[in-house]
């Protein structure tokens, strides 16, 4: 980390020097720094998403006593990269009668919204992309931009001029709006515990001997933990809550009519969202970048690694769930959100409040 | 395919073979009746078919209240429709046959008695060109809406240029080709 | 309120199929939706119509036998059995006891294989994809046995008029015994993974209600009927082959919903295992075929043979005019009549229920359209 | 509290809930626990299957010998057997296979009379064939057989028409296999 920060400092100083010499406002340096950081993160996220897709196929294959992809590269590790390449060179079809603008904007908006969430993730101690903006409301920001993506889905579903797509988009909207509520209730519990909405502060609040300080060890936060993961799974449209794209009912839901690059954007953004869930879940309940070996890490393993490991574990668990469970029906999904998770969320807040006040 | 002699059914059978309660219930409705290996068989006329089926289905003690199958048979000058009934979930069958003239194949529908008759009658109408009067939904079921002809009649000929029956052009130039054509070609070659 | 008067809802007509992932073939459902609720379902069939009955009129009795396989391709042995039984009735032939036992074994193995496909596709329909692969894994073991016996994996052409193509190979009984030894535990696994799953149960219970009276009117047979609590199985009601000698129960469930039909099939697999075990014990030695003339010319007449296929009562009606070819051959197709009752089951269903109910009816489009 | 999605109806297999009335809070907790347990059990089943032997095969292997081998008696591609002593085809051109074929996919053109009769042309359209094996069963000279070869896919339906040279070559190729049977 120190090496990285030295390099970045040096780069920054060089850029500032150059700007002063050429008479360019220093604001430009900040913009440049952010752009570089964003490019790095997008590249990283795309790489991780490729790994996830590969992992998903391997995990599903192994669960189903298959081998999964085996052909491209050793044990098929380049399969997803090749598939992504294939998607990029495939013909981009816009159906007749479709709203061309919305059809194009939908996946872009969905993708951008998925990427925005990464801005506030604390990758390591003080390593947040948006470190120059006020981060007091980090977790609120994540949930807020998470809801923007739904507009992209509705655009895509409506703009496709396909009834299946429209049904999928409507389902998706209903589902996302419903599950936002219990998810926020679960997050509020953690915020009450950490006494901050900043993700960095939430992580530092979990410092303790080894992994004892993590919020997942506090019994009054177990209910929020479960609520968060149920709601977050629904939020990213994964089984058992994948009704927006339920392939046996709605063909492929909102992306029925998409192909090529636009489909790839939807696909990548979905997995990017799953990764955000892993990261936020790790941050909220499993100590984020904190090392389970102690503070500071005795082996000098960067916190970035620990965060990644935790997020991967969570995502693999979600995959395991996905290949085990059937999916719910749309009314059951709604009933689950409003009749069970919502009261449970209020109950969780009540419990946490009582515990924090009196114990 | 030549229209062969229809199978002989009703040479030596008489209504006396039927059980007495059936004879009573079906008096005046059937033209012939017999005891077959699986159950009773009877032949009736289009005017009496619904009455016969109703009588069988509404029998007091042991009604034949389960219509299992309906089947059309081309009997040369006449078209036959075979109704296969069972005593509720048992092995005792009652087979009711009714013949209609080929020129005017009209029958009353049995959909009022059994819902099963709906698709069964539509299928027979598709395949044999019979008209079931009073049918609630007489559209073609298995065949395309614009299909002409009654394929399961013995005198049906395949229209060679029909779009639904087109041949595989990749095989056309092989000399040996598809379906029954090869046999006649072989005979010529041999 | 001006907004309320301006807001207008419309019903949405949507074509499910003929190319839709979960219509189990080329079935087209014209569905009218009110939001997510189903107002009306109209099945449109005929996309897989293959003139099975007309083909019979130009082929001899032996030649038609391979076509019987193809008509309900998931139950090829059962179709052959129905056809062969009908022809044997016409001819007045009684097959040998060993042949009868082997026929029953084949029919029951095919029942297991067909129900496994049912499980697989139902799991896929409700979103549990892994079940699909597990069931196909077990089905492969059965297909291996079929291949050893008949030389083919799906369309066997194994039964012959008056007998069988060949006797069982030497290692067949051992292989079947091995399969039967582990298969019940696999059924338990599906039970744990799918049937007892809370989400699956909430998807299936109370869905697709269909009463026993409706079943009688629509001529619905098989597991769909036994899911209405009616104890009707051709193997019991009108026994054929050696079923009277075998000890098995006909599972019924009273709930009349999709779950009941599902449970019937799950229980039937266990009963088929029982039947197969008994067959293995009781299998007599001897010839498998009786002599039949090379040119089969039955006397004029007609015969109707029915067997219990995995989907219900499968009947084969043959009218003979004394020639080498059937004058008329008619299949009493269980899927055809079961599908006819599908719109009744879909009353007040949700869109997602459509596929679950269709899966629970377990149609084969080759059987529907013939 | 009404929880319609739980469909708390009677079920013989799982005796937790039998009534149609709405569940009380205690029953509700029981349902939730039971549902959670069923999910855990399901996860366990997929977990053990994760470690099971993988059943799929990496067909086609680079080494053809590793590919799946059909059982004896498998009905695959066709072959005409050549007699070892005379070096001629066993086929006597009787056309019985042609007559029995339900699909009409066989065409035999015989040549010669009596003992000299042999096939001049022998076509089998494997694209029409349904591999029922009737032609093999009916063959009086045991000349026409089916090999265990199942890899018959091509990119052109014309290539599926087997002529007499092809069938003879196949017979030579599978000579040993067919003789053992």
Summarize the topology:
The complex is a heterotetramer of chains A (359), B (190), C (370) and D (181).
Chain A: H1 2-22, H2 27-63, H3 79-89, H4 100-116, H5 138-159, H6 163-194, H7 199-204, H8 222-235, H9 260-285, H10 303-322, H11 330-358
Chain B: H1 20-25, E1 30-35, E2 39-44, H2 49-57, E3 66-75, E4 78-86, E5 93-101, E6 106-108, H3 117-128, E7 131-133, H4 169-172, H5 181-189
Parallel strand pairs in B: 2-5, 6-7
Antiparallel strand pairs in B: 1-2, 3-4, 4-5
Chain C: H1 2-6, E1 12-16, E2 28-34, E3 37-44, H2 52-56, H3 61-71, H4 76-91, H5 97-126, H6 129-150, E4 159-160, E5 163-164, H7 172-195, H8 198-204, H9 212-218, H10 223-226, H11 234-237, H12 258-282, E6 301-309, E7 312-320, E8 326-332, H13 334-340, H14 342-345, H15 351-361, H16 365-369
Antiparallel strand pairs in C: 1-2, 2-3, 4-5, 6-7, 7-8
Explain the overall architecture.
The complex is a heterotetramer of chains A (about 350), B (about 190), C (about 375) and D (about 180). Chain A is an all-alpha fold and about 350 residues long. Chain A contains 11 helices and no strands. In chain A, helix 3 packs across helix 9 (about 260-285), helix 6 runs parallel beside helix 11 (about 330-360) and helix 8 (about 220-235) runs antiparallel to helix 11 (about 330-360). With about 190 residues, chain B is α/β, with parallel strands linked by helices. Chain B has helices at about 20-25, 50-55, 115-130, 170, 180-190; strands at about 30-35, 40-45, 65-75, 80-85, 95-100, 105-110, 130-135. The relative contact order of chain B is 0.12. Chain C has a single domain (about 10-370), classed as Cytochrome-c3 Hydrogenase, chain B. Chain C has helices at about 1-5, 50-55, 60-70, 75-90, 95-125, 130-150, 170-195, 200-205, 210-220, 225, 235, 260-280, 335-340, 340-345, 350-360, 365-370; strands at about 10-15, 30-35, 35-45, 160, 165, 300-310, 310-320, 325-330. By secondary structure, chain C is of the alpha+beta class. The longest helix of chain C has 30 residues, at about 95-125. In chain C, strand 2 (about 30-35) and strand 3 (about 35-45) form a beta hairpin. In chain C, strands 1-2-3 form a 3-stranded antiparallel β-sheet, with no helix packed on it. Chain C has a 3-stranded antiparallel β-sheet with strand order 6-7-8. Chain C has a two-stranded antiparallel sheet with strand order 4-5. By secondary structure, chain D is of the alpha+beta class. Chain D has 5 helices and 5 strands, in the order αβαββαββαα. The termini of chain D are far apart. At the B-C interface, strand 3 and helix 3 of B face helix 9, strand 6, strand 7, strand 8 and helix 13 of C.
């Amino acid at each position: 980390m120190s090496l990285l920060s030295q390099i970045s400092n040096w780069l920054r100083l060089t850029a500032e020097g150059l700007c002063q010499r050429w008479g360019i406002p220093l604001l430009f340096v900040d913009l440049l720094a952010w752009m570089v950081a964003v490019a790095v993160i997008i590249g990283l996220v795309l790489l991780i998403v490729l790994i996830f897709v590969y992992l998903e196929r391997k995990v599903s294959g192994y669960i189903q006593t298959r081998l999964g992809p085996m052909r491209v590269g050793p044990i098929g590790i380049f399969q997803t990269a090749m598939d992504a390449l294939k998607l990029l060179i495939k013909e981009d079809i816009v159906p007749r009668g479709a709203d061309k603008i919305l059809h194009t904007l939908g996946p872009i908006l969905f993708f951008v919204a998925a990427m925005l969430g990464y801005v506030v993730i604390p990758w390591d101690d003080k390593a947040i992309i948006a470190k120059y903006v006020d981060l007091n409301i980090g977790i609120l920001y994540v949930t807020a931009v998470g809801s923007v993506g739904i507009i992209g889905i509705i655009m895509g579903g409506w703009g496709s001029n396909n009834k299946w797509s429209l049904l999928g988009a409507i389902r998706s909207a209903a589902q996302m709006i419903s599950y936002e509520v219990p998810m926020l209730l679960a997050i509020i519990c953690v915020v009450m515990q950490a006494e901050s909405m900043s993700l960095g502060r939430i992580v530092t609040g979990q410092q303790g001997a080894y992994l004892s300080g993590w919020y997942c060890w506090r019994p009054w936060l177990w209910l929020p933990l479960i609520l968060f993961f149920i709601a977050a799974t629904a939020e990213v449209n994964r089984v058992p809550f994948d009704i927006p794209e339920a392939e046996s009912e709605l063909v492929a839901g909102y992306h029925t009519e998409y192909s090529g690059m636009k489909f790839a954007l939807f696909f990548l953004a979905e997995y990017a969202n799953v990764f955000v869930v892993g990261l936020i879940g790790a941050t909220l309940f499993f100590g984020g970048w904190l090392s389970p070996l102690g503070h500071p890490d005795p082996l000098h393993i960067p916190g970035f690694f620990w965060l990644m490991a935790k997020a991967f574990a969570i995502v693999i668990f979600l995959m395991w769930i996905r290949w085990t469970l059937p999916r719910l029906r749309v009314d059951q999904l709604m009933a689950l959100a409003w009749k069970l998770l919502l009261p449970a969320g209020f109950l969780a807040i009540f419990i946490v409040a009582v515990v924090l006040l009196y114990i | 395919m030549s229209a062969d002699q229809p199978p002989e059914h009703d040479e030596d059978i008489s209504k006396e073979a039927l059980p007495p309660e059936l004879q009573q219930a079906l008096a005046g409705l059937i033209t012939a009746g017999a005891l077959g290996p699986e159950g009773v068989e009877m032949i009736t006329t289009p005017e009496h078919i619904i009455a016969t089926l109703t009588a069988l289905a509404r029998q007091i003690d042991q009604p034949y209240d389960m219509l299992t199958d309906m089947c059309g048979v081309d009997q040369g000058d006449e078209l036959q429709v075979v109704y296969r009934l069972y005593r509720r979930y048992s092995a005792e069958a009652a087979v009711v046959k009714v013949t209609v003239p080929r020129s005017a194949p009209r029958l009353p529908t049995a959909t009022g008695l059994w819902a099963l008759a709906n698709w069964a009658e539509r299928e027979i109408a598709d395949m044999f060109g019979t008209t079931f009067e009073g049918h609630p939904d007489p559209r073609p079921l298995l065949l395309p809406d614009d299909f002409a002809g009654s394929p399961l009649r013995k005198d049906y000929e395949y229209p060679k240029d029909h779009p639904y029956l087109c041949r595989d052009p990749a095989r056309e130039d092989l000399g040996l080709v598809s379906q029954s054509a090869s046999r006649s070609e072989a005979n010529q070659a041999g | 309120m001006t907004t309320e008067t301006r807001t207008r809802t419309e019903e949405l007509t949507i074509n499910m199929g003929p190319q839709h992932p979960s219509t189990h073939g080329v079935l087209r459902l014209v569905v009218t939706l009110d939001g997510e609720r189903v107002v009306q379902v109209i099945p449109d069939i005929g996309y897989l119509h293959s003139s099975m009955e007309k083909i019979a009129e130009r082929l001899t009795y032996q030649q038609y036998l391979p076509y019987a396989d193809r008509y309900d391709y998931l139950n090829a042995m059962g179709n052959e059995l129905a056809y062969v039984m009908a022809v044997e009735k016409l001819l007045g032939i009684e097959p040998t006891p060993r042949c009868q036992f082997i026929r029953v074994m084949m029919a029951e193995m095919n029942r297991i294989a067909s129900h496994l496909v049912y499980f697989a596709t139902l799991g896929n329909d409700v979103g549990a994809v892994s079940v699909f692969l597990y069931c196909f894994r077990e089905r492969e073991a059965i297909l291996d046995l079929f291949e050893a016996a008949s030389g083919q994996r799906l369309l066997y052409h194994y039964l012959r008029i008056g007998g069988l193509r060949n006797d069982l190979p030497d290692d067949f009984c051992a292989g079947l015994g091995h399969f039967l030894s582990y298969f019940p535990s696999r059924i338990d696994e599906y039970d744990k993974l799918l049937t007892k799953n809370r989400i699956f149960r909430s998807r299936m219970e109370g869905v697709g209600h269909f009463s026993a009276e409706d079943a009688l009117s629509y001529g619905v047979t098989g597991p769909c009927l036994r899911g209405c609590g009616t104890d009707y199985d051709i193997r019991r009601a009108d026994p054929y082959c050696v079923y009277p000698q075998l000890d098995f129960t006909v599972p019924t469930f009273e709930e009349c919903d999709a779950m009941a039909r599902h449970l019937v099939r799950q229980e039937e697999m266990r009963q088929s295992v029982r039947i197969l075990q008994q067959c293995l014990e009781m299998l007599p030695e001897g010839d498998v075929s009786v002599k039949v003339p090379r040119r089969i010319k039955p006397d004029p007449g007609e015969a109707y043979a029915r067997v219990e296929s995995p989907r219900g009562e499968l009947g084969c009606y043959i009218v003979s005019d004394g020639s080498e070819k059937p004058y008329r051959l008619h299949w009493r197709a269980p899927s055809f009549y079961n599908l006819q009752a599908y719109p009744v089951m879909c009353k007040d269903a949700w869109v997602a229920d459509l596929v679950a109910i269709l899966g629970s009816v377990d149609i084969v489009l080759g059987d529907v359209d013939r | 509290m009404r929880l319609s999605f739980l469909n708390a109806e009677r079920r013989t297999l799982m005796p937790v809930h039998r009534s149609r009335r709405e569940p009380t809070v205690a029953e509700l907790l029981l349902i939730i626990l039971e549902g959670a347990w069923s999910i855990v059990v399901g996860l366990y089943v997929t977990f053990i299957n994760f470690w099971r032997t993988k059943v799929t095969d990496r067909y086609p292997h680079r080494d053809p010998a590793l590919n799946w081998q059909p059982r004896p008696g498998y009905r695959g591609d066709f072959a005409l057997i050549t007699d070892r002593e005379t070096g001629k085809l066993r086929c006597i051109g009787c056309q019985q296979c042609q007559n029995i074929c339900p699909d009409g996919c066989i065409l035999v053109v015989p040549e010669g009379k009596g003992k000299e009769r042999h096939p001049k042309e022998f076509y089998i359209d494997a694209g029409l064939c349904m591999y029922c094996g009737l032609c093999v069963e009916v063959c009086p000279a045991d000349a026409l057989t089916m090999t265990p070869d199942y890899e018959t896919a091509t990119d052109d339906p014309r290539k599926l028409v087997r002529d007499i040279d092809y069938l003879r070559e196949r017979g030579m190729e599978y000579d040993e296999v067919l003789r053992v049977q």
